[in-house]
Structure formats: C-alpha cells, structure tokens
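FW: tagging you since you asked about this chain on Friday. Here's the raw sequence from the shared folder, copied in full. Didn't touch anything.
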Amino acid sequence: MQEAILSVRELTEQLRKTLEGRFPFVWVRGEVTNLTRPNSGHVYFTLKDADAQLQCVWFRHMQRQTSQGFDPLTGEVFDSPRPSPLELLRNGLDVLCAGRITLYAPRGQYQLAVELMQPAGEGLLAQAFEASKRKLAALGYFNRERKRPLPHDPQRVALITSPTGAAIHDFMELASSRGSGARIRLFPALVQGAEAAPAIVRALQQANEQGWAQVIVLVRGGGSLEDLWAFNEEAVAEAVFESRLPVLAGIGHEVDVTLADMTADLRAATPSHAAQLLWPARAELFQLVDEAEAALVRAARRRLETAGQRLAQYESALRWFSPMRHQARLWEQLEGLHHRLQRAALQWVESVEARRDRLARALRTALSPARLDLLASRVDALAANMAAAMPRLLTAQQQRLDAAHQRLQTAEQEMLARSGRELDKLEFALSAANPLAPLKRGYALVRGADGGLLRSVAAAPVGSAISVRLADGSLAAVVSKVQPDAERSAASEVAQVAQKQGRKS
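HL: got it, structure written out here
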C-alpha cells in the first residue's frame, strides 16, 4: 500500500513524461494575452480562445526567428527582410505557435514551450475593437469639431474610477499638489469585468444629472486588452459622447487606447497625466501670483506718477487762469499792440516819403534838357535811316512784283496751250464717235418699223416697212426682196452651234 503512494514530485514527473510523450510537437492557434518580457529574455504569455487558455513560454535560446529574407516555416523568399514574430508579438495578436507540451513542476501547471511562432492575424477582441472603432467613427464620435475645451483650473471635478485601484491614488496625489484647490466628488464604479461597463455608464449619467461638476474625469490603471475591455464597450463610448459636461479620459498607460479615450473631449496618457492636464503646477500659480503682484505694484506706481503729473498741470493751469494773471496778460497784450501800432505808423510814413522821393528823382531825370536832347537826336537818326531805306525797299519790292508777273504770264500761256491740245483731242474723239459721220461717206442707217437699227436681213422680212437715214435726209421704203449673204449665214450658223455646245458643256 505504501509503495502505491506517490510524492507530489513523483506524480508531477510522471505526468510531465506522459504529456511530453503524448504531445512532443503540436501547433496551437490562439490570441495573445498577458504578455510579459522580463530581463531574463524569456517571453511569457497566454494563448486563449472563447473557451480556454494555455500558458506559454518562449525561452530565449529558442528565439531564433530573427529578421530575415525568408519564412522558416514555408520557405518563402522575400525581396527584403521581414520583422520577426518576436518583434511583432503583442497582446491581442492572433498567432500560430509550435512546440512541445510540458509540465512546470513548481506551479503544477502544464504549458507550451514555444519553438516556432507565426502571426495569424488579430484576435477576436482586437477585431471587435476595430469593428466598433469604424462604427463609432462613422457616427462622428471621434470628430475634433465636437470636442470641447476643458475649464482652466477647475474647482469642481467629478471622478469616475474604482475606489480601491491604484489609479485613484495616483490621481489624488497629483491633484493635492497642483491647482489652486479643488473639490473632487468620487463616483465609484467597477473598471474591469462584465459589470464594469454598466457601472461606468451609470456613473457618467449621475455626474451629468447632478450638474455639480465642471468636468468629468474617467481614469483607470494599465492592463491587458481584456482588462480594459469595459472602456471599449459601445455603451460607455455612447455615454461619453452624450455627456453634457466635458470628459477627460486617462485610461491605462500611454500605449493603451480605448474607444472611451477617443470619444472623450481630451485624452490623458495616464491617470497622473490627467491631473496634470486639469490643474497647473502650484509653483507656477505662485509664480503667476508673484508676477501679478509685481505688475500691480508697477501699475500703482505708474498711476500715482500720472496722477502727480496731472495735479501739477492742474495747479499750473489754475495759476495761469487766475483773474489777476488774466488782467496782467491783457495789459501786456494792450501795451504790445500799442507799440506795434506806433512802429507800423512810423514805418508807413517813412515808406510813403521814400516812395515820393523816388518818384521826384525819376521825374526830374526823365524831363531834364539832356534827356530831351538825347531823345530828339535818336528820333532824327531813325527818320534819316527810314528815308534812306525806303527807296531800296520800294525797288526790291517792284523787282519781286515784276518777276511774279512774268511767271504768271508764262504759266498762263502754258495752261492755254495745254488746254487747246486737250480740246483738240476731245473734238477728234467726239467726231470719231459720231454715228452720223459715216453717212457723209455714203453709208446709211436702216431702221425697222419699231425704230430700232437693222443689223441683219433676217430682221426685215419681205413686205416690212423700213426707213433709211442718209447724210442729207431720210427715205421711207418697203422690203420687196431679201437676199442673205451665203458666207455670213454659214458663219452665223457655226457660231450658233458653237454657242449651244458651250451651254451644254
């Protein structure tokens, strides 16, 4: 009986041999979760699907899938090196893992010792996240135009988070050292699990219904995609979208981005960062107060200096507008005007006398005997010059007149001769064109009964009346015989035939 009792180590060793013998090399597909990379270089993660989970370890000495130009599983050669699965490994990735099933004795759990890994696509949660992201983006949840600015240094803040989590401690620690003092009202809610999303929605609705806060802060610490999934529920994103108060979201770490983050009016990288975005550092506020105090002192000093200057101006103006000063100024002005009037009168009298003296001197100079003798001599010289120049001028004018008369007679004769020749040409042309001139040489003009000229015997049949015009009169006759010219008739017929052929062509 005692031989049948096994120690934990012995049983574990037998199970390990059984598992490793039964599953020496298997392929498993699942979604990566709980990924950790300690300093040892080993990689620990969990493969999961909808119904089960499998712990996996990828030891450092088995991580031989570095970036290279071919796929070690299929042998496919690439144009350029591809990143290794180790570099791409992250939570939410759907992967194919190959290795052996072994038993980890210290914990008594079986695990997959990974030897090969191939990405197979995004996990179910990641796919659901992308689908919801596309849906909400189409509805305008993420539009920048609808996002509202946060109030500066808010005094009333509604905080939605777990009262027992690390996020509230990080947030409150920063809040206690920043801003000018604010009241924070906690709306407790679950932040993980199946009941987390409805609890967050209720907390958002309560904060909006109370209307006490200036801003809503939604925070949670870091975690895996499953841990943060409540903030990827469409109901939570819809509650953030419909919030009347601006919402600041600080969920997870900087690399964690949820639908609530993208829908919120502003996203913080961490809960601590959310407090930094809400309130300025208190030292900065102290500095602003000091700067404001210094500016107030400078403004007061400038105001006092300005008031002193204005007071001095008013005192000077009051002294200037006193009745005694005004009367003294009037006497000064009167004396000044009196002196100016005297100087003006003296200057006018002096100018009149100077002008009279100039006119007298000019009159005496103009009517002096020497001046009159000079003008008389100049008149005599001009008369002598005119008497000497008149005969020469008349002779030259007469010569130019004779020359012009001679040229006019010559031009007149040439014009008459040219006109006579033109007249002779016109008379010759007129006599040549006279239709009655040939009658003097024995020709006659024959007209038919209608008065038209006869150019052919065909136009005057036998018995028709004709009139014959001679040089010295006219004759009336009747055609008794018609005798056509044979040669002219033939030529006429040929011409008519040629004319008809020309019209046909």
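FW: The mean pLDDT is 84.
HL: agreed, and The longest strand covers residues 109-122.
FW: great, closing this out.
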